[in-house]
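Retro notes - structure team

What went well: the batch runner handled both jobs without manual restarts.
What didn't: labels got mixed up in the shared folder, which is why I'm recording both outputs here explicitly, each with its sequence directly above its tokens.

Job 1
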Amino acid sequence: MRPARFSIALGRSILLMLLLAVFAARQTVTAAETTDAGPTLIILFDSSGSMWGQLPGGSQAKYAAARDALLQALPALDLNARTGLVTFGRGCNGVDVVLPPDVRPRDRTIAPINSLNPRGKGPLADALSRAAEEVEPGRRASLVVIHDGPDNCRQDTCTIAQRIAAAHPGMPIHLVSLGLDATETAAVSCIPEATGGKVFPVRSLSEVRGAIDQAIALAMTSGVPAPSPARRKGAEPETPKQKLPEIPADAPPHLVVSATLGDTQAVDKPVHWRIFREDDKSKPVLDILETQFAVPLPAGKYIVEAALGRAKATQTTEVAGKGPTAVTISFSAGIARVATRIGNNQTSKIPVLVSVAELSEPAANGAAKTSPLMVIHSPSSEFVLPAGYYRITAESGLSRVTRDIAIKTAEIEAVNLDLSAGQLHLSAVSASGAPVTDNLTYYLSVDDPNTPGGRREVLRTAASSPILAVPAGTYYVKVRSGLYEKYDQIAVGAGSTVERAIILDAARLQVVANVSLEPSNGEFPIVYRVLSQGPYAQEVAMSWERTPQFTLPPGRYRIVAEIGARNVSVTQDIELAPGTNKSVTLAAQAAELRLRIAEGAGVVATNRFWEIRSASGQIIWRTSQHTPRALLAPGRYEVRCELRDRTLKGTVELANGQSLIAKLSEQ
């Protein structure tokens, strides 16, 4: 390859060509299996409301920048590729398979994104599950997720990723992450780790195009087809070993790259490789996620960088003028294989948070202070770590266990962590036994003589039916729904599972206030107040919604609705029985008054100040609006309008349901 052509290789088009060459070198299935099956690429596009936000470096929304980058990237794909589109947003049930994967014009794959209106939450975990269901067994496939945050619908994304990896071995999931912080990145890093994919972090607007280009190019060159059902006999077959092509000694120059743990143990996990020319370290010639590969490169000196988990290594090599130049990167690293359980339950539904921190030396009894290197939301994980000392911590609910380990080069350290806790499954039901899931907050407290009141709150959750891991002991549970609270006391033993449905005898009240003015009814503001009755009557709830719902303890209450922020109000006393649902309609008497200055009054456009007084002389309203409009209780009113050089007066009589225009003139 001539030097002039190599300079072009730094561009996007030659990068894609090199990646295609890598793919040709790593085929492990027969020609009969792949000649009639083009690669499958499914784009998962985040359409949650946060996609209207912006990245540093410009005013374009993340949604628009990602859409424009896709418009540029997809048309260059292999014409035999099957493309699909899944969008997720609009709330936790908002996953749409817009286009199942198929061979189609590329602009048709992207066209539906133009009509998206990003809003609501982003159910990332459910989107991954639905996209994986669209992949046919035996096809080479990849998923590319373009998103700006982790799942915010309380789903365990890491568990979903592991299930997808088991159901579709060899299908990577790549993430184009727009503006994620360190915590958010850690929450989603398990997805590419479980599936052999890669994260393309985007920190500014200028990086969007390049990240999507690289993700699409990598997706089209990776993804080993899963074994078809017909080939599965008995136990699940092992994933076939990757084979490198035999490159003749007189062939054009190639760089053949592989990796080991220590000196001998071959690496069977995807490694993040970056290759630079020795005289130009500003931009990699190749940036790829592979176990091992062969790539054609012009003769010369190169720097090979490799990253596997937390382990990193660099080596400089010189590619010969002909044939293969083999480079083996040796990681001074080992593997920590972590498995957790809660009590005697190894298949608990309770999420577990596993963190890894580095120690400078062995620490007795966990005395050393540490900062996590990584955090994984998965009960079973495997970490590649440089040789050294580490602290592994598993946390779930209120339970926590820590173990210090030593990682040795090329060795596997099994870390089994038992949280020695019990499981507490909480739920709420109404007095009739129906499940209650809305507007709930659970509070967990324990005895603590050093805390005012003798109890200390240890946990709070708004989950509708929380499942918690807690150390053995006695807990005080408070459930709050609106203004209603219910208390319970629960004992949990180590390794036990306690299920408790707490009966809520709260009453639910829905209120609506109407005035006999149409279509003006609904245009004026309303404030509702709920007051308790008794010797210590006080306001217990307030709402500005038009038809609010209150959850209240049983008892007697007074409801007051004030409409229009003037003098229109209506009051009603009610009694709420335990467990009842009651709807109350308040009928208010009101009239609409519109104020104008008569045409013959000789008043030109000028500042004016209006005042309305009741028949008893009480000031009801003052305003400087040009032509004011008010909702008032029926009755007699005096109206004044102060102008720059004079005052206009008038009297109006309003009847219930009346809409009156009062025009003032000099008297």
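Job 2
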Amino acid sequence: MAETLTNATEYTVSEIAQAVKRTVEEEFGYVRVRGEISGFRGQHSSGHAYFTLKDENASMDAVVWKGNWARLAFKPEEGLEVIATGRLTTFPRSSKYQIVIDNIEPAGAGALMALLEERRKKLLAEGLFDRERKREIPYLPRVIGVITSPTGAVIRDILHRLADRFPSHVLVWPVRVQGDTCAPEVVNAIEGFNALLPNGPIPRPDLLIVARGGGSIEDLWGFNEEAVVRAVAASGIPIISAVGHETDTTLIDYAADMRAPTPTAAAEAAVPVRAELVGYVDDLGSRQRQAARRISASARDRLRAAVAGLPRPADLVATQRQRLDHAATNLLSGLRHSVQRQRVQFSRIEPRLGPQVLRQRSQDLAQRLANLSGRSETGLRKTVDRARLTFDPRADRLLPSAKRLVERKSSSLAAIGPKLSPNALRAELRHSQTQLAPLAARLLANFSASLVQRRSALDQAGKLLASVGYESVLARGFAIVTDGQGQLVRSKQGLEAGDPLTIRFANDETVPVLVTGAHVAPRKKPRQATDNDPQESLF
């Protein structure tokens, strides 16, 4: 087959793909595409998001890079009709074109309402709108936190209404109430108020008011964000939602503890009217005073009724007074009867009493007294004899003064003994005993002290004897030499051969020995005394 001759330029696939890419990007550098999101499965692990925009006749790929995802006011959701703004480009590897999205917005109010309803159902299923989660609004909050724009008319209306009803301490957290940053700023404000300490430098509010004026659904969309709804539901401080006018409804209205139709109504719901509260307190005080008066009057009436039912004091003691009168009357007659009875008894025993009876009774008593006197003298002598037998052996050891005192007492007792009566003897004996007891105590004390002193001296002498006695010398290896008569031998003078000696060692053992050797000096004979010698002989 013959080759076909042509002058057409030959391109590679890559060159064609790059040329198409440049053409598409130059022609469609900025576009707004309306379509339904399909195939959205969330962000990829890389952070990018891939899905498809389609309508009834065509579809195109779409991508949101990781850097643009965080800036999107509306996040892509499956089945949502949106208007995507971006630029077209191609993907040469698969010969496809796609739109790189910079911003996404719902395609009309219908789409927003559909998204709002779908989000409401989701949060409702999670229980964030349950009535059981809602808390009671404080009756009189000390500190009120307001989350709103600081430049709008809403904050002025709230402050003015609070000042009219009940002036309170208000903390304002300024936020944007419209736009892309509305939702995160409101979330930060709610979490910031909840993070304040109850006793910190900035007081922790008792109540929060989230307020905004009216507007379209797009203007109020920041209060429909899921993050804001969850922050309202998780708040530890009760929240009043006052977003929009009375006909406007946002998702935080369902999650808040109370919904107010307007910001002014929220201020009215937050605090009571001070004048009405003062009047209510005064009314309660008046009712309390009236109730106290009624209770006091009722108690007084009951007391009077009880007093009327009690008997008179005179009636209470009348019976006892009558019994006392009867007892006094009976006492006088009883005394007279007792005297008469004693007189009758005495008259019965009177004949038995006479001088002879009294004389006989006196003689009997005198005889008994004489017998007792004799017995007392005998007992006293026996007591003195026993005492003498007891104290005579110790008389020699008494001090001279005590001995003389005892002898004097004994002699005086012996001298006056027969003259004394038994009672006098007993008194004298007790007196002698009282004088003898201190002497005996002193004798015993002196004897004990003398015994201790002598024992101490004996111990010291024993110690001295042990230190200077020959037993300690023998213990060091020395010995004692005695002759036949037991006398100490201190030198060899006077010893002769054949003299018996005894050697004594430390353990009281003795050894008999005999004197031997020629070195012993002969014993000198004693010098005979002469008539001319003036000194007598010692032998």
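One thing worth noting from job 2: Confidence is low (pLDDT under 50) at residues 533-539.
We'll revisit the folder naming next retro.
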